[in-house]
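ok so i was messing around last nite and threw this chain in just to see what happens. nothing serious, just curious
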Amino acid sequence: MTSIKELIPVLQTAIGPVILISGVGLLLLSMTNRFSRIIDRARNLIALSENAGGPPRGRLLTQIDILWEQARLIRLSILFGGISVLCAALLIIVLFITALFGIEDAWLISAIFVICMLSLIASLGIFLTDINKSLAAFKVELYGHEEDRKA
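result:
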């Protein structure tokens, strides 16, 4: 059995993944909020497109297509963020198990940490791609308003 004095350094080591879980949790919160806004915006545009005709309807449909891509990207970003949090939680458990049983397995701990970080990197990269997609939808909306003013 492991003593408290031996367990304290393990607790100190586990603080890093706990902080990571908190930080990624905040990112996931902002991503889910963004996902909700994308869905709401798409629903509004669908309602508008049903009553529109001609070029304005085409612009609305283009924006809806872009919003569909954004929703898919955000969903994927949330998935990778979730994997990152799960890996961080698994890392905490593995740290405790290895400490309790005196197992020296740096490869397992390193592999879990690397998967955690790669998932976080993928999540953030996909999130940045979504931001660029939102600019594309905004561009369609802006140019649509300029054309309406010229007409």
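not much to say yet. The two ends are 81 Å apart (CA to CA).
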